[in-house]
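We modelled the chain as a single entity of 241 amino acids. Its sequence is:
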Amino acid sequence: MLAPLAFAGGDRSFMTITGRSGFSLDGLVPSILFLNGFAGPTLSANGPLWSLSYEVWYYLIAFLIGIATVHRYRWLAVLAVILTLALTFANPRFAIFGTIWLAGFGLSALHGAGRIPKVPEFPFLVAAILLVALAAIEVARGAQLIANLVVGGWFIVHMMRVLRGGRCWTNDALEWSSHFAYALYVLHFPLLLFAYGASGERSWLMGPALLLIFGAIALFGTRLESMKLIRQRSGNRSAHP
């Protein structure tokens, strides 16, 4: 809403040809209803939200199957299957990416049961690096989807190793950034687009703008991600620690 007041063109469009022709609220309603990618576009001002609709429906389907299993409500299982088929028909990538989500769900179940298998990580890591490199330099066009799947598969295997007690490389900077990483992931893209348009599309200003955005999110993101929207009443708290 501030873009027309700040952009040189007086609207939400960039003045020169860029990778994204405009900064707009197109796709706002489908994104709010988690239907973007199925029945409408993703909010054009925040492209990284494309995966959120997938994730929400995965959780809902898992919830329906869980309730159906525990309480033996077969109609909920049927509803979960119908919903899965409908979303896959609307966008086949829902089922394709769902394989990785399901693998993660299975890993969580195995972890809870203490039955995580021992799988070598190195071959999966090599395959992921090679496919990402191929997709990045566009040696094989259309490899991006395959690269995404292989990286997801590698990460599942990596988590298997970590959950079995394997060493996970880290450092203080990465650990510090993890406290606001999700806020940074969601917010950096629209803020950078706005900064680019508001600066008159001066690319050299994007470095300082990025540092400013990073600092602001680092300052407020930790509080945002630790905010408790639902607080437990003191009268309902258990007497046991």
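As a brief sanity check on the tokenised model: Residues 234-241 have pLDDT under 50 and may be disordered. Residues 171-226 form one domain.
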